[in-house]
Amino acid sequence: MVAFYFKCSKNDDLRKCASQIDKGSIIIFPTDTVYAIGCDPLNNDSVLKLFQIKNRPLDKYLPILTSSVSNLLDFVEITKDAEKLIKHFWPGPLTLVLKIKEYSSLNSNRYAFNKTIAIRIPDNKCTINLIQMTKNKLLVGTSANISKQNPLIHLRDLNKCNLQGYDAIVDGDECSSSHFVSSLLSSAFSYPSSFSSSKSKSPTNSISVSTIVDLTESNCPKIIREGVISKEDIFALLKEK
Q: pLDDT digit string (tens) for 13-27?
């Protein structure tokens, strides 16, 4: 039985939901791709429970969402390639795998990540607002489904996912993605680029998932998963001087 039901359209609901996340709750919430299930990634007990809910192997680390680039500067290494991709594609469906700084507080986590972190800023007003209201400004954002099953696209199909054990639902079906957080990125990095004024024009897949790019090896970007953003767009941007 779910203890809490929140709506994206109500700020008071989001504040209550953020408080539940800070207390260790696991929630199902909307993103700009599919519905996600998540918790505070710095709460080891919650993260371990989330692995159990999804029947996910512990060696498959979890993707993390945040609300602004400034939240990342103290704990991850942002390379020049990362700067380019962040400037052009965030907020949006691009997940970057980055190195965690040696003395970052994130290194105390045992389950969600280890020395590297897969992270992105989603282009969804509800999710951004929710993350900003949490204590740690981070939220696990893995797809709301049992591992290897189809992701949840519409909340009305939640019962088909066979997920059990989560604490709250955030209803975002009436909310659409928004570019309102672009201003959070505009001052983070400044450099000339012919790509800087537009988002990717890649066609959206029938099931929208983020593209995952591993930037942990210097000058050797790797496409881990091709999603909404094409690998051609990624490499074209990285080749720009």
A: 999 999 999 999 999
Q: Which two tokens stand for residue 117?
A: 């972190």
Among residues 77, 53, 29, the alpha carbon closest in space to that of 215 is found at 77
Interaxial angle between packed helices 231-239 and 80-89, expressed in degrees from 0 to 180 and rounded to the nearest 10: 120
31-61 pLDDT per residue, tens: 999 999 999 999 999 999 999 999 999 999 9
The string of DSSP codes covering the chain is ---EEEETT-HHHHHHHHHHHHTT--EEE--SSS-EEE--TT-HHHHHHHHHHHT--TTSPPPEEES-GGGTTTTB---HHHHHHHHHH-SSSEEEEEEBPTT-GGGG-SSS-BSEEEEE--S-HHHHHHHHHSSSSEEE-EESSSTTSPPP-SGGGGGGGT--S--EEEE-TT-----TTHHHHHTT-----TTTT----PPPPSS---EEEE--STT--EEEE--SS-HHHHHHHHH--
Is the pLDDT at 186 greater than 70? The verdict is no
Q: Can you give the length of the chain in residues?
A: 241
pLDDT in tens, 101-160: 987 877 777 777 888 999 999 999 999 999 999 999 999 999 999 999 999 999 999 988
CATH number of 4-239: 3.90.870.10
Instruction: Point out which residues pair with 100 in neighbouring strands.
Output: 76
Q: What is the DSSP string of 91-125?
A: SSSEEEEEEBPTT-GGGG-SSS-BSEEEEE--S-H
